[in-house]
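Holo model, 1,6-di-O-phosphono-beta-D-fructofuranose. Inputs:
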Amino acid sequence: MKYSPLQQQRYRYKPKLPKILQEEIHSIVPVFGEKTESETDQQELKKIFPHTYGKPVVSFAQGSNQEMSRKRNIGAVLSGGQAPGGHNVISGIFDALREANPESKLFGFLGGPSGILDDKLLELTPEIIDEYRNTGGFDIIGSGRTKIETKEQYDRCAEVCRKHSIDSLVIIGGDDSNTNAALLAEYFLQHDAGISVIGVPKTIDGDLKNQYIETSFGFDTATKTYSELIGNIQRDSHSARKYWHFIKLMGRSASHICLECALQTQPNIALISEEVARKKQTLHQIVEEISQVIAARSKAGKNYGVVLVPEGLIEFIPEMGSLIGELNDLLARRSDEFAASEDTVGWVAQALAGDLKETFSSLPRDIQLQLLMDRDPHGNVQVSRIETEKLLILMVEKRLQDMKQQGEFTGSFSSQNHFFGYEGRCAFPSNFDADYCYSLGYNAFMLISAGLTGYISSVTNLASPADEWKAGGIPITMMMNLEQRHGTKKPVIKKALVELEGAPFATFAAQRETWASETSFVFPGAIQYFGPPEVCDQPTATLKLEHQQ
Ligand code: FBP
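Output:
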């Protein structure tokens, strides 16, 4: 294997830990706080989680801890989409585990949660761990989107863990994976399996967050990577002055990524799905707003600009959301007929009725086909595969032609489309993510050694230097509510969408008119790993603004 000079340097980087976790590991004890409650549905959740609901918040303090030395075997699983820093979560668990007892072992289940069910695992040795420290990607053990949610699957997990004497599982995933981690923890307790389950908050989307999970890991690096690329495109656009760039940014549902990138780069337009939903904006209204900005800039001689489009937008536009909901249902209900049809678009168009039929039929054929592509394991349409940015370009082009005929637009409109998603998910983690992930992993071990299960690793006070971060954990049930899924009410972790009353959105909203008419582009440049802290160790604008609130 040939290592780039950067990779060789990153191997030498020593991630920072919160002060308390810098203590000799046998001198750290858990401190239990108040009992917890979920925000809503307390009684129902108590019934679903009789053993794990209401447990206290935990933090750590100095004290002698003999329990720490117990020999343990831990299994780690990476679940869902890649996010920069996953390897550091694993190295954090490994280092803590070995410091506590050099005979303890860490196993990695291969290819995500299915690795447990298929009994595919790898013992992670110091040599393997060292090869992945501070690097991006999940390739140390791979990831996957298999859901573990049935009684048979839970029993199989227990059987495989017992076979390898694994006493604890660390599930590194997003809201769905952590929901399933909580259900598994409860099941293991109910059935005396003797296996604890700890979650770690992962997702570049940034939508797994609350008071105790200030950000999910990977969001920092991914948004800095996209912002670098957006900044570069803005500079190109400002130099050539001939293109409008429409850039779709990843984020399955929430617009946190788009908002953070807008705060970092100050584009002419950034759409925020949550605002579109709140204002019940139609696709035509969105197109009208974009076209008006283009026409106004054109009058000032500026036939160029940048528009940021969040990946999840399509589902937040009311008529498109209804259409997608109906398509999800239709394709699940009449899957055989759909599969047998030669003209899938035609079959769907005749199966829809009223406004939904009209909306579907008005879309370009490529978009119609993209809306019909395979659903993910949760039954959701795969928004990363829908070319919303191209749809907007086509509609804006058409609207500008109409405006031209009416003399409302006299300039030119040439466009380029981009999608930034996979470019950011496996980047070398920023110093922030390298430190945060290592701390989350190290801390996950601390929760295991405190005898806890059904908890998620929590590292807070993240807008301050790492030394001042606080380590602890909260029961996953605390973050849950009941939601309607496939006709039944299910316990799930509430997805954190962009808060329109929050400081990040307010800061953006206060400046966007200026950004639209003037050219206020900011060029953040590439992530820096070595150099002054004000360049290398800054958290996201979202985190900073949320901490100022
Ligand atoms: P997670 O929620 O699993 O972290 O993944 C989020 C995400 O990166 C979304 O932003 C995107 O829509 C999706 O994964 C893409 O999934 P895939 O990698 O399967 O194409």
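Residues 80-81, 83, 174, 203-205, 250-252, 311, 383-384 surround 1,6-di-O-phosphono-beta-D-fructofuranose (CB under 6 Å). The longest strand covers residues 28-35.
Archived with the compound record.
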